[in-house]
Sequence to fold (394 residues):
Amino acid sequence: MTTRIQRRNRRKILDAALDVFSAQGFRGATLDQIAAVAGLSKPNLLYYFDSKEAMHRALLDDLLDVWLEPLRAMNPEGNGKAEILAYMRRKLQMSREFPRESRLFANEVLQGAPRLADEIGGDLKKLVDESAALIRRWIAAGQLAPVDPYHLIFSIWALTQHYADFDAQIRMIRDGADPLEGADAFLEMLFERLLKP
Amino acid sequence: MTTRIQRRNRRKILDAALDVFSAQGFRGATLDQIAAVAGLSKPNLLYYFDSKEAMHRALLDDLLDVWLEPLRAMNPEGNGKAEILAYMRRKLQMSREFPRESRLFANEVLQGAPRLADEIGGDLKKLVDESAALIRRWIAAGQLAPVDPYHLIFSIWALTQHYADFDAQIRMIRDGADPLEGADAFLEMLFERLLKP
DNA sequence: AGAGACCTTGACTGGTTGGTCAGGTCTGCT
DNA sequence: AGCAGACCTGACCAACCAGTCAAGGTCTCT
Fold:
C-alpha cells in the first residue's frame, strides 16, 4: 500500500532525477545533485529507491511506453501518407513536451544502450518490424512512394528528436530563439514531398 | 620541439581517449580506462597532458575543424541542389568514417555543450549563417525548392549523424546489420524530392 | 662511453560519491 | 492521548578517482 507522502516524494525524486540524468548522463549525475533539485536529503532518496541505478531504471521503464505510444497509434486502416505524417507530428510534439525524456533516451543509446538492450531488442524491435510491414503494405497499395520503411522510421526519429537532443546547439546558432520555430512547417513539407506516391 | 616518442604517445593517448570519451561521456570516462586502452600507465598519460580535461579539449579542438570542413566545401558557384546533395553525402560519409567523433560531439551537445559554447556560438554559427545566406540565394535563383535554410542544415545533421549516434539502437532493430546499409539511397531520394524546385 | 634530457612508474594523497545505520521525528489510527 | 509504523537525517564508511612526486630507466647526441 502506498501512502500520500510516498506518492508525492517518489514523484519529486523521479522528476529531479530526470532533470539531472538527462542533463548529465547516468555517470555524470550525483545523488547530491538529485537530492538538491528534489529538495530532499540524500539518505531520504535512498529510503524511496534502493540505489541510483534503481532511479534510472524506474525512469527508463516509464519512458519506453510513452515513447512508443505514437508508433502504436498508427492506424492500419488509415491512409498511409496521412498516418505517417500524423506519426511525425506526434513525435515532434513529444520533442516539444518531453525534451528531458528525449535526452535521457539519447544519453542511454549513445553509450550503447547497456540498460535498454532488452527492451530495444524486444518490444521496440517487434513494434518497428510490424510498422515496417504495415508501411510496405501501404506502399504496395500505392498510398506512399516506395521508400525503405526502416530508414523512413529512423528518419522520423532523427529529425524530431534532434530538436530536443541538440537543443543547446540549435539555440546557439539561432540566437536563442525557440529551436522548434518553423520546424513543423519544414518537416511537413519534407515528408509530404518524400512520401507523395 | 617534439620527439618521435611524443608524437607516438600523444597519438595513442588521444585515440584511446576518443574511444573512451565517445563511449562513456566526459564524466563517465576514467583515466584508468584510457590508460588501459592506450597501453600506458596513468601517470604517463598525465606526463603528456596536464589533465583529463586537457585531453578532452585537445579532442574537441581537433574535431570542430574536421566536422565543419564539408560545410566549408560548398561551392557558391555550383548548382544549389547538387551542392547540398554533395554536402549531405560528405556528412554521411563522415558518420561512416568517424562515428566516434560524432558521438563525442553528440555527448557534448547533449549535455549543453559547456565546453563548446564558444566555438558553436562563434565559428560554427558564422559558417551556418553564411551557408544559410548562400542557400537563400540559390532558392532565389530557382535552383532549389523554397525551404528554411536553417532547418535544411539541421535536417542534414540530424539524418546523417543519427546513424553514428544511435548506432546501437539501429543495430538492435536491424538484427546487427550495418546501420548504414541502404542509408545512401534513402537520403538521396529524400533530399532529391525535398529540394526539387 | 658518458652526460643530460627525456620518459616511465609504484606508491601515495585529498576529495568525491554511492550507500549505510542508529536513532530521531512525524502521521494516522484507535 | 498514546502507540505503531512510516518517514527522515547527521554522521559515517569504503570505494573510486584525478592528480602528485620522487626515484629510476631510456634515449640521443657528442
